[in-house]
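Long-time lurker. I teach an intro course on protein structure, and each term I like to show students one example going from raw sequence to a predicted 3D structure in token notation. This year I'd like something fresh instead of my usual example. Would anyone be willing to generate the tokens for the chain below so I can use it in lecture? Attribution to the forum is fine with me.
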Amino acid sequence: MERAMRRSRFTENEIIHLLAEASSGVSIAEICKAADITERTFYRWRRNFGTLDVPAVQRMNDLKSENLRLRGLVNNLFELLRKADGDVRKDGAPSPATPREPTRASRIAAEKCGGALTGRFSSVRVNP
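-- Reply from a regular --
Happy to contribute to a lecture. Here you go:
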């Protein structure tokens, strides 16, 4: 069972307004008391939203929604390609019907070692 995150009492625009008040000279303790938040929350907001203004937050939200939409499109296309290609397994790997050809580097290393098998994580020492 998934739990939804708790929704903030303050919108992003309200948070930015409180941060702007602090940058204009109002004491942080006074802002925290008026907004009924802790100083820790205020400094966390400053860390997350400190350099942003209202239009920047709107652009950030637009980019988040566009990113989510594009990820959905990519997932849909990937599913269509997966369905169209029948010899691909569920995990996306090619089917084992066609064996992989050894790479050129591992063939050269095998020739230098007198036909020894070399793998991805093997190390080869050649004594002169």
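Some talking points for your students: The two ends are 63 Å apart (CA to CA). The helical segments are 12-23, 28-35, 39-49, 54-84, 104-112.
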